[in-house]
Structure formats: C-alpha cells, structure tokens
C-alpha cells in the first residue's frame, strides 16, 4: 500500500518506469476482476487498458489518498457496470426498433405465419446438425467471424471450416427450398 502510494507520486511526476511497474502488478488481476462481471475477456481487457490509459493521461490530477489498489479495482467495477448498462440499453433499443419495424411492416397474417414457420424449421434444422458444423456455421453467420478466425479458435483447418459451412448450406437449401418460392 505504501509502495503503491510512492509509485503514484513518481507516476504523477511522469515516471514511466513507475507506471509500468504498477501496470504489470495490476493488469492481469484487474482483467480477471472485470471478466468476473462481463464474462468476456476481450471486453474486460479493453476496460482495463482504457483505465490505465486514463490513469496515465490524468496522472497529475489523480486524488488517491489511501489505496491505489482499491482505486483501480473500484474503477474497473464501475466501468464494467457502465459497459453492461450500455449493452442493456443497446439491446433494448435494438428490440424496440425491431418491434417497430414489425408493427409497421406490410406483412399479411399469412406472411407472418410463414415467417414463423420458416424460423422454426430453420432453428430445428440447426439443432439437428452435428455439433461442430452447427458451431462453425453459427460463428460465421451469426458471430460474423471469418473462416480463418473460426479455424484458429477451434483448432481445425480453414478447409474444414469451408467444408462444414458448405455442407450446412446444402442441407438448408434442400430442406428450405419450398420457402423460396
């Protein structure tokens, strides 16, 4: 605690080495702490990196009197909660826009029924696929991941990803062809 306050004084005076020492000491624990709220390590790391960026940028104005550690962990918690709130607002907005589009669309009740039937059939077909094919397809089509990213994440070749997506598309085209009229 005293060491952290001494580091803070050095950081306030622009000591890069002191900042690097503080960063190395707290970066990983703060990432894990943020991840405990977010369940998303990429977002957790982004929050912690942004915290350290602002910490350095505003170093001269920092008013930490007792514990640098407490300050950092409380900041990460606050930023994680803000991020989660942002996601919640975004999702509510997205749902509202989708609902408004549905309400203002010119779909007849028959069109809406056919859409729901198609959606149900599509979901059922996805559930019947082998796990790897379903996962690869969903990562690409719904997760927006490139073939190379999927291959790396699942430890398979890009050709395997291509083949699995092709197989899924053949199945979907065959099983859903009468909806395409």
Written overview of the protein:
By secondary structure, the chain is mainly alpha-helical. The protein folds into two domains: 87 residues, Rna Polymerase Sigma Factor, Chain: A, CATH 1.10.1740.10; 71 residues, Orthogonal Bundle (Arc Repressor Mutant, subunit A). Helices cover 80% and strands 0% of the residues. The chain has eight helices and no strands. Helix 1 crosses helix 2 and helix 7 crosses helix 8. The longest helix has 37 residues. The model has no long low-confidence stretch (mean pLDDT 86).
CATH class of the largest domain: Mainly Alpha
Can you identify the CATH superfamily of the largest domain?
RNA polymerase sigma factor, region 2, helix turn helix motif
Distance between the termini: 70 Å
Number of helical regions = 8
Query: What is the approximate shape?
Result: elongated
Low-pLDDT regions = none
Cα radius of gyration in angstroms? 25 Å
Number of domains: 2
| Largest sheet report | none
The assigned structural class equals mainly alpha
CATH architecture of the largest domain: Orthogonal Bundle
Write the element-wise H/E pattern from the N-terminal end onward. Answer: HHHHHHHH
Overall mean pLDDT: 86
Which range does the strand content fall in? under 5%
Number of beta-strand segments: 0
CATH topology assignment of the largest domain: Rna Polymerase Sigma Factor, Chain: A
Specify the helix fraction band. Answer: over 70%
């Amino acid at each position: 605690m005293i060491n952290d306050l001494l580091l803070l004084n050095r950081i306030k005076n622009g000591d890069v080495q002191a900042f690097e020492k503080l960063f190395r000491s707290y970066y990983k624990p703060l990432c894990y702490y943020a991840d405990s709220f977010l369940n998303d390590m990429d977002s957790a790391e982004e929050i912690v990196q942004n915290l350290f960026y602002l910490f350095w940028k505003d170093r001269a104005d920092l008013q930490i009197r007792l514990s640098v550690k407490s300050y950092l962990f409380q900041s990460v918690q606050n930023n994680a909660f803000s991020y989660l709130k942002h996601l919640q607002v975004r999702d509510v907005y997205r749902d509202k826009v989708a609902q408004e589009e549905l309400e203002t669309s010119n779909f007849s009740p028959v069109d809406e029924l056919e859409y729901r039937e198609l959606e149900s059939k599509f979901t059922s077909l996805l559930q019947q696929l082998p796990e790897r094919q379903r996962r690869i397809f969903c990562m690409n089509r719904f997760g927006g991941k490139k073939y190379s990213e999927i291959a790396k994440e699942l430890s398979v070749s890009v050709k395997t990803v291509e083949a699995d997506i092709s197989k899924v598309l053949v199945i979907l085209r065959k099983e859903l062809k009468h909806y395409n009229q």
